[in-house]
């Protein structure tokens, strides 16, 4: 069973909080690069809000699954702003590190 630890919640929320800021900042970059304004705002604001919502729900194990799916969606924003391919992979690495490092530090094993 997947057990959520306090460290996982703290590190995961930190990653998602910073990611929300970065994703929101893709809106002006996408607009500047000629993206459709409605698409740029919907994608940027939508993903930023999702980051904040998932961060608030990290007490539940399902939030970590949704957070992982969210990481894939952030990488996909690279089709709108190419730099997000790179930044999305960095945030995915931070997300995975937040989960596994917190579990290791707190001595939780997978069962």
UniProtKB/TrEMBL annotation:
Transmembrane segments: 12-31, 37-57, 62-79, 85-102
Coiled-coil stretches: none
A Pfam family assignment: DUF4233
Classification via InterPro entries: DUF4233
Keyword NADP in annotation: no
Keywords: Membrane, Transmembrane, Transmembrane helix
Name of the featured protein: DUF4233 domain-containing protein
């Amino acid at each position: 069973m997947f057990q959520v630890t306090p460290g996982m919640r703290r590190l995961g929320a930190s990653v998602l909080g910073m990611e929300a800021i970065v994703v929101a900042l893709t809106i002006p970059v996408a607009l500047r690069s000629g993206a459709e304004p409605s698409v740029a705002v919907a994608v940027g604001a939508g993903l930023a809000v999702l980051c904040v919502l998932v961060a608030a729900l990290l007490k539940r194990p399902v939030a970590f699954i949704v957070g992982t799916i969210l990481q894939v969606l952030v990488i996909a924003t690279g089709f709108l702003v190419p730099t997000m391919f790179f930044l999305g992979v960095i945030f995915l690495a931070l997300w995975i590190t937040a989960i596994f490092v917190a579990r290791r530090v707190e001595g939780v094993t997978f069962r």
